[in-house]
TrEMBL record:
Organism expressing this protein natively: Pauljensenia hongkongensis
Molecular function GO labels: ATP binding; GMP kinase activity
This protein's record includes keyword Kinase: yes
Highest taxon of source: Bacteria
Name of the protein in its database record: Guanylate kinase
Amino acid sequence: MTEAPALTVLAGPTAVGKGTVVAALKERHPDLRVSVSATTRPPRPGEIDGAHYHFVSDEEFDSMVESGDMLEWALVHGRNKYGTPRRPVDRAIAQGHPVLLEIDLDGARQVRRTRPDARFVFLAPPSWEELERRLVSRGTEDGAEQRRRLETARVEMRASAEFDHIVVNDSVERAVSELAALMGLE
Ligand code: 5GP
């Protein structure tokens, strides 16, 4: 493996288990800093402002973009805007922490252009059927939203070859170890 990257971008389709993998990775490597995105999506039950996301209005989001405060941003699933505030990422890197961004394909492509030194990892499901099963069984989206997310997932799956590495999330434990190794954490 080449030198540990300062910045790692993790993308992958809806319901592939990015949240679970990232939470387990953070637990195992407290030095890791995971960027807290800003979003115009309303919080889900149990989500905490400033921890899971910075929940902002459309106006607040647009003004962050206009002032150049976003490292990248995208309209995800054609509905809500999500973006990475630039300053906390730069600060954490300057302090010597490995930094992880968990963002969508559009965002990953933007970071590829502006931070070509970053490492790009795609988290893939064991199969398409398994992805559908995970999305339906988590039950956080209604039927229309599930269909929209699966549509985006199809596009994202086709783009997996653009990434430096593909990690298959068949077991969380194994996916976490693989990701940690790619990030030079172990
Ligand atoms: P959710 O609404 O389920 O929390 O997230 C939906 C999607 O938004 C996920 O696929 C996630 O990768 C993406 N996302 C979360 N934060 C960001 C961000 O800061 N930038 C971009 N481009 N996508 C994000």
